[in-house]
């Protein structure tokens, strides 16, 4: 093992593990441009993220040698999941003959050698149901995390067979999961210049993929289309929705029947959301009043750098990432072991969730063969992709949304109430403050009870195309924590019925 210099990220970890008070952060904030390596800090964060999910990807990113004979060809194939992977029909799920399950690669035209991997599951109900694409965050985590642990058709059993998910979103939609940005999951390239660093690159790749997808599946091209996802997808989703809307207006290719987009516990407007960390932490008794006052002072520098990032880009964006991330970690240092995805829970060491079965399953030789990925290893979460997106982190993507909702696109922002990292409070604030034609009416709208089986499962606010839903008894991953509620949420939202429940409050 190579000797390592004790850089700021290493010292930061000492601060955290030693339970230093939040006032410590002021010493670090005095010189926001003095950080020696933003890549080191982002790498540390990425590795902590991967460890927290109990994932151990063999490689940091899927960049393969040029001309590798083992590289899979451009291919899409129908997969008989029950026969191939021993699906247990414990809940009376349908047979595979009733609809299609697909896995495939699409070659990205605006790249040197990148290929994007995806899963596609036809609706268990009807092929005329909406087409829904799901994007996971990280940045750099495979959407297979959501597919197997949140809202996909199947769950992985202890013996690595699959069982039907009674609340999979494919029960009401034709569902696509994409491994992106390039280098994530089974997506790969042979040229590192194909790795993406901003939302322009990410959204163009996804738009190109969708154009090819609907060309290959013309019977779905006229279906209603929705973009969904969580966490860092709070960046991806507005960027992709804007790209699709622009492409439709300019008649660039196949018209995509975009009806709306939904962001779950997302990072969308960092300036507002980072300001909410202290307030949320105080409300949840994660910190003291004294800690809170220190955070408010430290946030001044964080906010200044976020503003500068969105004006100038470049170095300011790196510095904003570093400074604001320190504030976040200092909050978590007050109560070590707190699961920042669900503050009701504790992490054991770095382990907060165990998603290792997915990683083991997808790296099995027979699974890789059935999926057509050849010898490509599954990179569950890529620290390299995470590093590459560091400059993008503090960019405000909310600015792309007003034009979309003003043009009638439906927007759902939902958040589990116990998530810290992309908490409901910060999300509700940027939604309230968003400058669009219905802003005043949305802010004055009354709370509405979201009922599941006659019981309150959340509180929502709606005006016109905009809906905000705070989900009870859920953390960062709402479809995992409240699967039935999340399925009903999606179905009601797509049907325009999400706000049709009794009002509460004055």
Keywords summarizing the entry:
39% helix; 2 domains; 506 residues; EC 3.4.16.-; globular; secreted; carboxypeptidase; disordered N terminus; 18 helices; two-stranded antiparallel ribbon; alpha/beta; glycoprotein; disordered C terminus; Rossmann fold; protease; eleven-stranded mixed beta sheet
How much is the radius of gyration in Å? Answer: 22 Å
User: Number of DSSP strands?
Assistant: 13
**Which CATH class of the largest domain applies here?**
Alpha Beta
User: CATH H level of the largest domain: which superfamily?
Assistant: Alpha/Beta hydrolase fold, catalytic domain
What does the overall shape look like?
globular
Q: Could you give a short account of the major beta sheet?
A: 11 strands, mixed
**Which residue ranges are poorly predicted, with pLDDT under 50 across at least 5 consecutive positions?**
1-39, 68-74, 502-506
Number of helices: 18
Mean pLDDT: 84
Beta-strand residue percentage: 15-25%
Instruction: Give the tally of structural domains.
Output: 2
Measured distance between first and last alpha carbons: 63 Å
Q: Give me the CATH architecture of the largest domain, please.
A: 3-Layer(aba) Sandwich
Q: Say what the CATH topology of the largest domain is.
A: Rossmann fold
Family: Belongs to the peptidase S10 family.
Enzyme class: hydrolase
Protein name: Carboxypeptidase
Pfam families: Peptidase_S10 (PF00450)
């Amino acid at each position: 093992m190579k000797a390592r210099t004790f850089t700021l990220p290493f010292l930061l970890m000492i601060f955290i593990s030693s339970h230093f008070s939040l006032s410590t952060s002021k010493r670090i904030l005095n010189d926001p441009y003095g950080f020696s390596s933003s890549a080191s800090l982002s790498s540390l964060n990425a590795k902590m993220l991967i460890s927290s999910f109990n994932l151990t990807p063999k490689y940091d990113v899927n960049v393969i040698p040029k001309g590798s004979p083992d590289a899979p060809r451009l291919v899409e194939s129908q997969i008989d999941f029950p026969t191939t992977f021993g699906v247990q029909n414990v809940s009376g799920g349908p047979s595979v003959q009733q609809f299609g399950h697909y896995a495939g690669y699409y070659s990205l035209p605006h790249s040197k050698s990148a290929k994007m991997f995806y899963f596609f599951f036809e609706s268990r109900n009807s092929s005329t149901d909406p087409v829904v694409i799901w994007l996971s965050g990280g940045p750099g985590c495979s959407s297979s995390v959501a597919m197997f642990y949140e809202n996909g058709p199947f769950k992985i059993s202890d013996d690595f067979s699959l069982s039907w998910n009674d609340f999979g979103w494919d029960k009401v939609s034709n569902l696509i999961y994409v491994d992106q940005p390039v280098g994530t999951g089974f997506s790969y390239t042979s040229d590192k210049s194909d790795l993406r660093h901003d939302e322009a690159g990410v959204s163009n790749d996804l738009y190109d993929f969708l154009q090819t997808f609907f060309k290959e599946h013309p019977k779905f091209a006229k279906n209603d289309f929705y973009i969904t996802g969580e966490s860092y997808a709070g960046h991806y989703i507005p960027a992709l929705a804007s790209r699709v809307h622009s492409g439709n207006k300019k008649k660039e290719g196949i018209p995509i029947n975009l009806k709306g987009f939904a962001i779950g516990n997302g990072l969308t407007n960092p300036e507002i959301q980072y300001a909410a960390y202290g307030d949320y932490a105080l409300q949840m008794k994660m910190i003291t009043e004294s800690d809170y006052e220190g955070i408010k002072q430290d946030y001044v520098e964080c906010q200044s750098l976020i503003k500068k990032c969105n004006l100038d880009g470049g170095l300011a964006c790196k510095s904003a990432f570093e400074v604001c991330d320190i504030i976040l970690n200092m909050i978590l240092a007050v109560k070590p072991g707190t699961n920042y995805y669900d503050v009701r829970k504790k992490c054991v060491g770095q382990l907060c969730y165990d998603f290792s079965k997915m990683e083991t399953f997808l790296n099995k030789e027979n699974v890789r063969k059935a999926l057509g990925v050849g010898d490509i290893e599954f990179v569950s979460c890529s620290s390299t992709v995470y590093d590459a997106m560091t400059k993008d982190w503090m960019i405000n993507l909310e600015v792309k949304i007003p034009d979309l909702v003003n043009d009638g696109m439906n927007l759902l922002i939902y958040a589990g109430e116990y998530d810290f990292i992309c908490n409901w409070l910060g999300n509700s604030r940027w939604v309230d403050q968003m400058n669009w034609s219905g802003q005043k009416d949305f802010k004055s709208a009354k709370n509405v009870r979201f009922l599941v089986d006659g019981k309150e499962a959340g509180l929502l606010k709606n005006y016109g195309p905009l809906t905000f839903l705070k989900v009870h008894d859920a953390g960062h991953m709402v479809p995992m924590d409240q699967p039935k509620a999340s399925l009903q949420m999606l179905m009601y939202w797509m049907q325009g019925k999400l706000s049709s429940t009794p009002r509460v409050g004055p």
